[in-house]
Amino acid sequence: MTGRLSLSALAGLPAAVRRPAYDVAAAQVGVVHLGVGAFHRAHQAVYLDDILGRGHAGWAVAGASLRSPATSDALDPQDGLYTLAVRSGAGEELRVIGALRRRLVAPREPEALLATMADPRVRIVTLTVTEKGYCHDPATGTLDEAHPDIRADLADPGRPCSAPGYLVEALARRRAAGIAPFTVLCCDNLPANGRTVARVVARLAALRDGDLGRFVAGEVAFPSTMVDRIVPATTDADRAQVAQALGCDDAWPVAAEPFSQWVVEDHFPLGRPPLEEVGVELVADVAPFEHMKLRLLNGAHSTMAYLGYLAGHAHISDVMAQPAFARLVERLQDEELTPTLHLPPGVDVAAYKSALRERFRNPALQHRTWQIAMDGSQKLPQRLVAPARERLAAGAPIALIAFAIAGWMRYVAGRDEAGGAIDVRDPLAARLKALADEAGPDAARLAPALLGVREVFGADLPADPRFAGAVTAALDLILREGAAAAVARTAQAPAA
Ligand code: CS2
Fold first, then answer.
1. How far is the centre of ligand 1, averaged over its atoms, from the C-alpha of 232 (Å)?
2. Is the pLDDT of residue 294 over 70?
3. Beta strands in 74-190 (DSSP E)
4. CA 322 → CA 76, 245, 317, 336, 426, distances in Å?
5. d(Cα 96, Cα 246) in Å, to the nearest integer?
6. Which residues of 368-396 are buried (b: 16+ CB within 10 A; e: fewer)?
7. Pure H helices in 157-271
8. Mean pLDDT of all residues in 276-300
9. Is the CB of 372 under 6 A from ligand 1?
10. Is 189 in the pocket of ligand 1 (CB under 6 A)?
11. How far is the CA of 178 from the centre of ligand 1 (A)?
């Protein structure tokens, strides 16, 4: 392999590699993105690359990492260029993305990031900082005022460390300078993501100063979005494969499936790029899209992640290759999740679900169950707990959702079925493990102990005997028979 991907290497790339259809050096930053991980680089940055390619030169991205310098260090020597490898059973298509015109590492250059966010040419701040990055209580969607990062941001607001802290400080600086506020566009899988982030950010602003709180609540737009593309973490094998195909090294390519969807509430007081020209759906109400996606895709994903990991499957495609798992996913979607949805107009939900299951089967993506299993305490409320709550209120059965939640409980207890330690990544991991250790491997003790985690289940569900009973029975089955056998039995059980 010779050399490194860069602007000067573009001309020498193989003809099949698609490259920026615009003058990369002339593109101007109009969007700041917080959290430039693989998902952003395979999703929003690609739409904006298309926008730049259509001649709208003012919408390039300044991408900030709030913690690790790794992305910046990988892409700086490449002039910010990186490869998107779109993979499916039909093969691979490579495309070099140029939209990431600036890279910033927040802890290394906080002033530069704040100055960029306060620049009047920046009209939108997008975010993918994962669910836990908003420092909120997932059960209530309100700011966790005791969160160490929030306390630090209140103690030293000019030197923030959290995403809400950066937003508040940058909005305060714009306000002080008489610059209209940017629009905040959350692209994480939170419920009602715009409204949730608005609540969190306005509260943090209000804790700093009442006027600032009123300003954020009254003057800043937080449109909601639904984002969808399956983007597994990049591996060294991906790097090697991309380098082989490019004929030069790319330190951090991203691999993704062909499917991509972005649904956005159309509320941008400072203007926006012509997103409709590049396939973004601009709608008045994102909620029906969000529920459909968070429950049918992400709810199924979490179910496969916990139970699949326990049953010894490393990747989602391996899980889907097991007929019992595939049947369980289908039944969970059809019998218990779909009935909770108010479908977006014109959507054929049967076709949506069968396309989803094909996406899960994508043989060219190595999407690890362990990766999806991360941060369950932040993900379960919107994916599985909310639909269970709605079904209970309607008197409908919840056996399959309860089984999925029991899979999470078995996983966060921290031991696999051979007795080995599971590397459980979750902001609540230590507390979950302590609860599990104290309860021991007995469903009658373990289920109520974990149901008491209010951030996940609220105050209502642990007290509902239908919910507690179903989760306890499912956990008992998993503990007694093992995940694979429990899945086989549950997938065949008569519909409740
Ligand atoms: C996954 C999502 O890791 C996870 O929790 O469920 O990242 C999922 O792949 C995306 O939301 C797909 O759009």
1. 9
2. yes
3. 82-88, 91-97, 100-105, 124-127, 136-137, 142-143, 183-186
4. 43, 32, 9, 21, 27
5. 10
6. bbbebbbbbbbbbbbbbbbbbbebbeeee
7. 163-176, 193-208, 210-219, 236-246
8. 98
9. yes
10. yes
11. 39
Half-sphere exposure of residue 466: CA atoms within 13 angstroms, side-chain side: 16
Query: What is the predicted pLDDT for the residue at 2?
Result: 72
| Tokens 């079925």 -> residue | 417
List residues bridging with 255 in a β-sheet. 85
Q: To the nearest whole percent, how much of the chain has pLDDT over 90? A: 99
Mutate to test the pocket of ligand 1, among 289, 372, 377, 380 (most ligand atoms within 8 A of CB): 372
pLDDT of residue 1: 52
Give the 3-state secondary structure of residue 43.
coil
pLDDT of amino acid 495: 87
Q: Which residue has the tokens 């696999």?
A: 416
Indicate if the pLDDT at residue 438 is higher than 90.
yes
Question: How many Å apart are CA 370 and CA 302, to the nearest integer?
Answer: 10
Q: Which of 301, 365, 374, 408 to mutate to test the pocket of ligand 1 (most atoms within 8 A of CB)?
A: 301
Residues 6 or more apart whose CB falls under 8 angstroms from that of 295 comprise: 337, 340, 341, 383, 384, 386, 387
The per-residue pLDDT for range 43-78, each reduced to its tens digit, is 999 999 999 999 999 999 999 999 999 999 999 999
pTM for this structure? Answer: 0.97
Average pLDDT over residues 210-229: 98
